[in-house]
Amino acid sequence: MWSILYAVSLGHAGGALGVLRSLLTGGAAAQMYFLFVYAQLVVLTPLLYKGLKKCPVLMYAITPAALVAYEIATAAGFASPILCRLFPMWLLFYIVGLDWRRLRRLAKMRFDLSCALWVACLLLQLAVGFCWNTFGDYNMATTQLKVSSMLSSLCAIALLMTMPNRVRSWMANSVLASLGDVSFGVYLCHIAVLAVVSKALAFLNLPVTMATFLTWALTLGLSWVFCLATRKVLPQKIASLIG
């Protein structure tokens, strides 16, 4: 449904066939690849559970190996955008979710150590990003599909796992929890909201830094409000159906 909405509103080339192609490949809008990947992961979930029981090391190694191959292929000029929409590229995060209970038991890292590792990985991610940008590939400089980017994300997860209970309790009762509850809906609608916000701010001719901040703040805020309003106005079944 969301893919068709974006494909029609953004005017995909190729008519009905182009819309169908974008629907089947998760290419209707910039964020629709996630639903395409998520569908693959859900279908594979029973096999993933079996893999975690029999050979967890192999399951955790799939995404790093795929990312290394992807970065090498990209540097050599052989990468294809469709690879970003295949499950091996994102499997690691899903595996961490499936294996969360065991990981919580194993997590004995100190908060200060996990924080230091997170900062170190962020610096590595920045350095790798600037290297890719110097190389002339802005897409690879900013994508999360790099080993360095996923390392920093995993360290952020470890940071949250080792955070003091009082901090986690505060976060659970803060406005962040409300945003987290509708984050999936925000993800689905924010590109449409972004298109409207960008066109509206274009009339103001603001400095780049101010325009960037306002674009981010208004897109997040309006998407959030839209999702909250939708949950209150529409019947629960319909609200759930549209995400």
β-strand number: 0
Mean pLDDT, to the nearest integer, reads 88
Q: What overall form do the CA principal axes indicate?
A: globular
Biggest sheet statistics = none
Q: What's the end-to-end separation, in Å?
A: 10 Å
Radius of gyration: 20 Å
Short précis:
By secondary structure, this protein is an all-alpha fold. Helix content is 77%, strand content 0%.
Description:
It is a single chain. The protein is mainly alpha-helical and about 240 residues long. It has three domains: about 30-105; about 105-165; about 175-243. The chain has helices spanning about 1-10, 15-25, 35-55, 55-75, 90-100, 100-105, 110-135, 140, 145-160, 165-170, 175-180, 185-200, 210-235, 235-240. The model has no long low-confidence stretch (mean pLDDT about 90).
List the helices and strands and how they pair.
Blueprint: H1 2-9, H2 15-25, H3 33-54, H4 56-75, H5 91-98, H6 100-106, H7 111-135, H8 138-142, H9 147-161, H10 165-172, H11 175-181, H12 183-202, H13 208-233, H14 236-241
Helix pairs in contact: 1-2, 3-4, 3-5, 4-5, 7-9, 12-13
Q: What keywords describe this structure?
A:
single chain; 243 residues; mainly alpha; 3 domains; 14 helices; 77% helix
